[in-house]
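User: Second chain of the day. Same drill as before.
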Amino acid sequence: MRVVIAGGHGQIALRLTKLLAGAGHQVVGLVRNPAHEADVAAAGGEIALLDLEQADVDAVAKVLSGADVAIFAAGAGAGSGNARKDTVDRGAAALFAEASERAGVRRHVQVGSMGVDKIAELDPEEGFTIYLKAKLAAEDDLRARDLDWTVLRPGHLTDDAGTDRVLLADHTGNGRVTRDDVAAVLAGLCETPAAIGRTLELIAGETSVADALRGL
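Assistant: Same format as last time:
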């Protein structure tokens, strides 16, 4: 497979690149900083230099041309202002999905966030609420598109070593999950038709990643 990952220098994306490349797939990490090329290359991928906050849909579609899977794993980051939560977590996600449609890349996986269903209970002016609103808007945009989409909402992310033991379901409740295990699930979702058209939550559990994917 040829897989294009938006946010290719992110912590999950680099882990995902290593897994996919190690399995013999071609991986392209879409990044905006040329200094990140060495890290993506070390993980086994190549880079496409593009800023999703500035690019137009044709430029993104050109990068996606010929891909089998598009994965949106970009994010403005915890230290970003409210404006970038909208331009990246919503706007860039929508642009990437539109470009997938234009390039004919049907399989599209988007990393969402736990908590988007609790927005009404939160302070509307708080930064995390604004982030969740952006993530929810990106999900809503994706669901309306003619793509074979999946949204994956991981729990609280940790840098602990992967366990290969997860709970992957439509609803899991709150919990933690390692970035290693998120990457492993994303890699598997690329070739899991049962996940198409579903919004899935992911936390640590008792089931192997392979069995969790088979059980969808």
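Residues 82-103 form the longest helix (22 residues).

User: Great, on to the next one.
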